[in-house]
Amino acid sequence: MGSISQIVGTDRRVIVLALARMVGALGNSFLIVVLPLYVASDLIDIDALVGATAGVGATSVTLTEPLLIGFVLSLFGFLNSFSQPFTGRLSDRLATRRPFVLSGILLLGTASALYTLADAYWILVVLRAIQGFGAALTIPATVALVNEYAGSADQRGGNFGVFNTFRLIGFGFGPVLAGVVVDNGPYDLTAVGLPVINGFDAAFAAACLGAYLSFALVYLLVHDAADAAEAGDDLSIRVRGDDRLLDPVFVLGVATVAMGLCIALYATLQNQVNVRLDQPPVWFGLQFAAVTIANVALQVPVGRASDRIGRRPFLVAGFLLLAPTTLLQGIVLSPVLMTIVRLGQGVAVACVFAPSLALAGDLAREGESGTTLSVLTMGFGFGVALGPLASGWLVGFGFVVPFAVGAALALVALVMVVTQVEETLETTGIASGAAADD
Q1: 296-305: per-residue pLDDT in tens?
Q2: Of the candidates 166, 100, 105, 106, the residue with the CA atom closest to the CA atom of residue 370
Q3: Beta-carbon count within 10 A of 275 CB
Q4: How is residue 196 annotated by DSSP?
């Protein structure tokens, strides 16, 4: 572990936490590919739901398979995002992070195992809700630990870059592996005294094992920061800024909603994309992972560069690139071109992810990392939740429509960042100090 820390130049505790999150994210991201296929399979009975009407009067909608898939994927993100301000604030109040991380991982892993017993749509909904709350316990406490481990602002972007890189390796390559696991099922395990299991159950079991391994790593190797400060009396999330219309952390949270939505629009449309591009499911897994591949390559250099030259230039560049790369996903007709466009979207996300967390960490008051950073993690979770649901509905108006809406929201986020977010390193003098060292 020490050698890895030396190679990447990051606190060993951040490496341990990042490895644990990588293993857990690998298992959980299996479900992004597996659940849509599972809902569409004969193993889950949705015939009575498809074609039914939900809601009353003008608010009623006709349930379709993409909409049902979008709902079960989105539910995780909605519960995750809306619960994070409360779990983040509670971890600040108690001045502890580790119990939140451990309990959340247990919920994620156990629910993954229970998918093997699900034979009705409502059971999937319940289990996905449990996983959403589990993630809400884990995520704010985890990023608060990374922020507290940073020690100083000139290391914060790099720490978040390394953490996000490891986490995204698990999250990005999970869907690719999931497609392989499902496609190659069933598996004959009678030779080791186990029954024959189908590809879905194998994927659920892998997700469960990944979460439990993550639990073991955190339990053995991760501890609360020794110098963690107690939170102040005011742990409210601020909307109005001190010298401008909106608080910069709140703006970044809203902008992160747009970013998460743009990424997640693709998830619900697996079946439509495969037909439109005439491609097998493995291609979709690669395209979904392409965003993460670009992030894995760029998170660390972008994070460290933001420690030296500032956070804001990367935020502006990221949202400038996010709009066209989102729109093009509704236009291209080649699997290769779709993969390239998704890679471009990943570059945009890499420019936003670590710098935005670092900027919020710069602004977080002592003992309030959980509350402050939960605004961004909540925003990302909400966007990831809203994306599949929005695309499942908007695709009914045309394949390009969900991506056009996402691109428009990315432009709105760009305007908000440009007008409401200032550079934090200039105010602390770190950027000028780094330049002087050169």
Answers
A1: 889 889 988 9
A2: 100
A3: 10
A4: -
The whole-angstrom separation of Cα 373 and Cα 146 is 11
Chain mean position to CA 137? 14
Of 436, 360, 395, nearest to 88 by C-alpha is 360
pTM over 0.70: yes
- What is the phi/psi pair of residue 102, to 5°? -65, -45
103: its two tokens: 């309990």
- In which band, very low, low, confident or very high, does the pLDDT at 231 lie, cut at 50, 70 and 90? low
Does residue 44 sit in helix, strand or coil?
coil
Residue type, 282: V
Phi, psi angles (nearest 5°) of residue 53: -110, 130
CA distances from residue 174 to 32, 41, 66, 167, 180 in whole angstroms, order as listed: 9, 20, 22, 11, 10
C-alpha distance from residue 237 to each of 85, 375, 385 (Å): 8, 8, 21
Which residue carries 């970044």 as its tokens? Answer: 252
In whole angstroms, give the CA distance from residue 312 to residue 422: 7
DSSP 310-362: -SHHHHHHHHHHHHHHHHGGGT---HHHHHHHHHHHHHHHHHHHHHHHHHHHH
Question: What is residue 200's predicted lDDT score, i.e. its pLDDT?
Answer: 85
Q: For 48-126, list the strands marked E by DSSP.
A: 53-54, 61-62
How many CB atoms are located within 10 Å of the residue 227 CB?
7
Q: Classify residue 208 by burial, with Cβ atoms within 10 Å: 0-12, 13-18, 19+.
A: buried
Instruction: Write out pLDDT tens, residues 102-159.
Output: 999 899 889 988 988 888 888 888 998 998 888 889 888 888 888 887 656 677 788 8
Give the total residue count for the chain: 438
